[in-house]
Specification:
The chain has helices at residues 11-22, 36-42, 62-72, 87-96, 108-119, 127-140, 152-162, 167-174, 178-192, 197-206; strands spanning 2-7, 27-33, 50-53, 77-82, 100-103. By secondary structure, it is an alpha/beta fold. Helix 7 (152-162) crosses helix 10. It is globular, with a radius of gyration of 17 Å. The relative contact order is 0.11.
Amino acid sequence: MIPVAIIEDQREIRDGLCELIDGAEDLRCSAAFGSVEEMLPGIASDLPEVVLVDIGLPGKSGIEGIRLLKERHPKLVSVVLTVFDDDRRVFEAICAGASGYLLKKTPAPRLLQGIRDAAAGGSPMSPEIAARVIALFRQARPAPPEGHDLTPHEIRVLKLLVDGHNYKTAAFELSVSVNTISFHLRRIYEKLQVHTKSDAVAKALRDQIVK
């Protein structure tokens, strides 16, 4: 069972998400909070694998909540679930450490699969958000990267991450073991000077290491 926590200020939506998650055979709603302030002291008692985070919350924003969760629980996976689809919030959420960005209009089956993908190391995004992310980084037009020193094979692995693959699917695509992918990712993280998959994806797009 994949434990999932929710940070959502609207009770009806919060209760509905809990019911939806508990209705899946492989997921369970471990906790539900109405604000970041309520979540911070309560989440550690039953640490989930994935947290669904609304952005427009009373008090601290969901983006600030994601940043605090990343600082306190680095292995915890945060996925935005919101109505907001503007570039600023998308960019800030990813920079804060969000592993995925889904809109609340996402159909229930796709939302549940997005949670599973996030728990497996993927980066679930609504199609329109994924298109915005790609456009956002392309418009930035950064200077060509220097000093990354990635091998051609490491760049292929990194591109699979950018395309949304997790360890298992990347290993299948390259006909190698999951341990081999893990080894390459450790080297990639070291060379890019990052610590998480979402940071590696962001840097790959920002520095145009992959296109």
